[in-house]
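Thread amino acids onto this structure.
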């Protein structure tokens, strides 16, 4: 399971690099921070249960943040 966090770090790095190349600096910095977090967590040797609980927490936090941003921060398209 620890390897999967390092794989998540790799893909977050790839997305961050593509965002940086597309002049989306804030988006790229967000994914670079996620890369660091995923890689560091991947080397901490937690139990599989701990990794799964942390991933669920990450997913809930990201979905709530995305929903908040799209509903309250983005302008109404009409």
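Threaded sequence (78 positions):
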């Amino acid at each position: 399971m620890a390897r999967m966090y390092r794989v998540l770090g790799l893909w977050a790095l790839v997305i961050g690099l593509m965002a940086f190349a597309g002049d989306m600096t804030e988006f790229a910095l967000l994914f670079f921070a996620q890369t660091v977090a995923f890689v560091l967590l991947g080397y901490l040797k937690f139990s599989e249960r701990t990794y799964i609980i942390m991933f669920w927490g990450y997913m809930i936090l990201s979905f709530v943040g995305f929903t908040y941003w799209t509903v309250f921060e983005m302008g109404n398209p009409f």
